[in-house]
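Standup notes
- DV: blocked on the single-chain target, sequence here:
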Amino acid sequence: MKSYEVIINHKGPIDLSVIDSILLTLKNYIQDKQLDIVLRKRLYTLAVECLDNIYKHADKSEHHSDLISEFPSRFIVEKIGDDYMLHTGNIIFDVNKEKITNKINKINNHDQEEINKLYKRALMHAEISEKGGAGLGLIVMARSTGHKIKYDFEKINDKFFYFAMQLTLKK
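- DV (later): unblocked, structure below
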């Protein structure tokens, strides 16, 4: 039977102080477990990208506080055997679902070498969006894991979906 450990399980608002706290917890875990340098960097990079995605791209407003309490943002890191699983979830506007789906599917349809080329191309042509991103987050995630990004959307109502993502990092 594989060993199982929940390293981080955050459910609720994600702001800069929460991100700092989560990353400190992860950094302490990594140091305590004396993880291999490559695994350590990949795990930490994935956590930063996931949290940044939620922080910058979750579609929420004070007008929808009932939805936010019913469908809170989440960030979970688990260790299953030698592998790590990162789970994220956040509310998005229905109009953003197709754009996210297309981005992830485009990345998932490439092999690792093509993802590296996408990454270099995105770096050279990066433009900062109004939300503060340069479009690299999902590419970095796929590049770091070497695996397909798993995702799902749960319809909340006619305006919102709950976007869930799962990343697998194998040792």
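- Follow-up: The chain has a mean pLDDT of 90.
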